[in-house]
Amino acid sequence: MTETETIAYDVVVLGAGPVGENVADRTRAAGLSTAVVESELVGGECSYWACMPSKALLRPAIARADARRVPGLGQSVQGPLDAAAVLAHRDYETSHWKDDGQVQWLEGVGADLYRGQGRLTGPRTVRVGDTVLTARHAVAVCTGSRAALPDLPGLADITPWTSREATSSQSVPGRLVVVGGGVVAVEMATAWQALGSRVTLLVRGKGLLPRMEPFAGELVAEALSEAGADVRTGTSVASVARADDGSVVVTTEGGERIETDEILFATGRAPRTDDIGLDTVGLEPGSWLDVDDSLRVTGTDWLYAVGDVNHRALLTHQGKYQARIAGAAIAARASGVPLLETDPWGAHAATADHHAVPQVVFTDPEAASVGLSLAEAEQAGHRVRAVDVDLASVAGAGLYADGYKGRARMVVDLEEEIVRGVTLVGPGVGELIHSATIAVAGRVPVSRLWHAVPSYPTISEVWLRLLEAYRG
């Protein structure tokens, strides 16, 4: 019979992805002893199956598209991508799915790593194998999310791609069906189309990127179609089956049959909370966890849920932001601070999750947004006005690419005279969104933005065009 070992820490972190790593970094910086539990690879989804590999696949596609639009250069880059080289670089960026470097970093901040499935067994207690970890101050759940697959006839028999397979495949499928219209769907459609797949995109809704301004999805869909992808909106999958030759047969609800070599379902995410012992502390296994702005789980004084698991913003950069807030809150409470800075924009409040969440979709063209869309602002009860500018009218855009196509929208609160949201679509706009994030998060008055002079000739001059259009 194996003897159980019990070890006490100030903080126990479940999950060693970017979020868990940052919680550990902040609590260790505050002098708290910290244990981190990881069942897979240290570095998490972002490092091995999401952000890093997907951008490694996308970067050559975007760079080639940009180069083709530059006079004097375009004719030199008309050939296909070197798929083997792209996949090899992707493998390099994922450290070949080995986490030695990330383990070294975690140990460098002074956190103790425990490998295995961590499960709560009661308040402030986590079991990993034959080891029981107790937390004097906090347990932070940072286990992230996984791809959610639909309940579809035949799905269990075909081994479909999810985001993990789409970012880690060692070969380029001749034909690829992508089901979904969100970020993962459009990014992977862009990447694999560029690498040589014949991509068919099946979208149940009316358009792509439904959480952004409508024009974002329209411009991305147009570009995908021009690149050779078959984009079909208003199309739902009824069933899938594996054919004798190994291909997948997709049947739509309209009765159409589509044959493909691989099928990617990018139809949503689910929290990875089904096997971490939530039931032992009165919470529902497999559920998203409700939190306050200090990321503490509702109804508890010791349990924190940080990153995807709280469903506030399923983005790595927002999860890391939350981790900094949670780490500061845990440290403050551990030191006996009687009143945390939980006012809006305080040190212990994840206020940006409500007001200034930025996102970049790395398609061609890129789509980037922060804050509220026009529809969201109106639904929230704000009296707003949307100002639109054709990005092709900006001098820097014409220099960036011949025939530049793009659009920008600024949503202005008419009562407070601040920017509630910004959406940019066009080549290279991903590098512009942080200036918009500062404007939204900082609640910078429009009158003050007028004095933030953009350099000429850059695409950033779109700010001047937006402000001019707003002033009339």
UniProtKB/TrEMBL annotation:
FAD binds at K55, G118, T143, G144, S145, D308. Disulfide bonds join C46-C51. Keywords: FAD, Flavoprotein, NAD, Nucleotide-binding. Binds 1 FAD per subunit. Residues 9-317 form the FAD/NAD(P)-binding domain. GO terms for molecular function: dihydrolipoyl dehydrogenase (NADH) activity; flavin adenine dinucleotide binding. NAD(+) binds at G180, G181, G182, V183, V184, A185, V186, E187, G268. Residues 357-463 form the Pyridine nucleotide-disulphide oxidoreductase dimerisation domain. InterPro entries: Class-I_Pyr_Nuc-Dis_Oxidored (IPR050151), FAD/NAD-bd_sf (IPR036188), FAD/NAD-binding_dom (IPR023753), FAD/NAD-linked_Rdtase_dimer_sf (IPR016156), Pyr_nuc-diS_OxRdtase (IPR001100), Pyr_nucl-diS_OxRdtase_dimer (IPR004099). Belongs to the class-I pyridine nucleotide-disulfide oxidoreductase family. This is Pyridine nucleotide-disulfide oxidoreductase. It comes from Streptomyces longwoodensis.
